[in-house]
Amino acid sequence: MVDRFFAHGHSWLTRADSQDVVISSRVRLARNLAAYPFPERCTPENRKEIWDNLKTVFLGLPELEKAIAVEMTELSALDKLFLLERHLISRDLMDTGEGGGLVAVPDGRLSVMINEEDHIRLQVVLPGLDLTSAWEAANRLDDGIEASVSYAFSSRLGYLTACPSNVGTGMRTSVMLHLPGLVLSQEMEPIVRGLTKIGLTVRGLLGEGSEAVGNIFQISNQVTLGEGETEIVTNLAQIVQEVVEHELNARARLWQKKPVILHDHILRAYGVLSHALLLTTKEALDFLSSLRLG
């Protein structure tokens, strides 16, 4: 079943915005069912019921009519790693037993994890800087789901989630960026500190707990309580534009002040990629980052 994903590339890698700095935009919604405890407290029978019921609901939605539904217990370790690399599942979902699963369209634009930290982890990923469209697509899908199930919701707090940091909108927005200019100029650390001070999180390629290999970073919101969805989307988009400007300025300064060093950096990467027989994932991504810069 996972083979159907092999025939499709990442739809969100079809283009990049802002001079190839912004790779993709993602909106993720966390939701739980009012009739069940959070997944961590569910019995195996509960988890299986939730999987069966939600799978039926999701596959009945127009946006997911061509989706693939697969339970984690059906997959090999290699299949799970493939889906993790595609940003379709998390490490937490990889380790779940019966009832943990994925419903996703083959090109990866729309996907839903079932019985991860929350009953529902819905995400939309689009190429370039397009948070507004990603939010609109996620909202439509969320409305379609809510027409068939009752969410755990508080009139005072908003959507209830297993982790208190997600309570409220339950929404995380993130943008993936390629920032070699800032890294090579040793300007990334002050950028990260500044973003942290204004309530944003900076992570690596695979999200929480991952290393920033290939000079690829994810910037996302931390606060989900007390801010509306539109406000979260607008604020992050504006800040990302500022980071893009810093990156482009850093690249320009490097080409102006250190052209020989930069050419050498790029050509070394080309040489290794052309002739090496064995490379680690980190090495490959770091060298490919240099080629993309050149």
- Write down how many β-strands occur, each being a DSSP E stretch of 2 or more residues: 10
**CATH superfamily name of the largest domain?**
Glutamine synthetase/guanido kinase, catalytic domain
Number of domains: 2
CATH class placement of the largest domain: Alpha Beta
CATH architectural arrangement of the largest domain: 2-Layer Sandwich
Distance between the termini: 38 Å
CATH topology of the largest domain: Creatine Kinase, Chain A, domain 2
Rg calc: 20 Å
Largest sheet: 8 strands, antiparallel
Mean pLDDT: 91
Q: Given the helix and strand composition, which structural class is it?
A: alpha+beta
* Widest β-sheet, arrangement of strands: 2-3-4-5-1-8-10-9
- Unreliable stretches (pLDDT < 50, length at least 5) are none
Morphology call: globular
Strand and helix order = HEHEHHEEEHEEEHHEEHHH
The percent of residues in helical segments reads 40-55%
Strand content: 15-25%
Figure out the total of helices. Answer: 10
Spell out the key features of this protein:
Creatine Kinase, Chain A, domain 2, 2 domains, alpha+beta, two-stranded antiparallel ribbon, 294 residues, 10 helices
Note down, in words, how this protein is organized.
The protein has about 290 residues and is α+β, with helices and mostly antiparallel strands. It has 2 domains: about 5-255, Glutamine synthetase/guanido kinase, catalytic domain (Creatine Kinase, Chain A, domain 2, 2-Layer Sandwich), CATH 3.30.590.10; about 260-294. About 40% of the residues lie in helices and about 20% in strands. It is built from 10 helices and 10 strands. The strands form 2 sheets. The protein has an 8-stranded antiparallel sheet with strand order 2-3-4-5-1-8-10-9, with helices on one face. Strands 6-7 form a two-stranded antiparallel ribbon. α9 crosses α10.
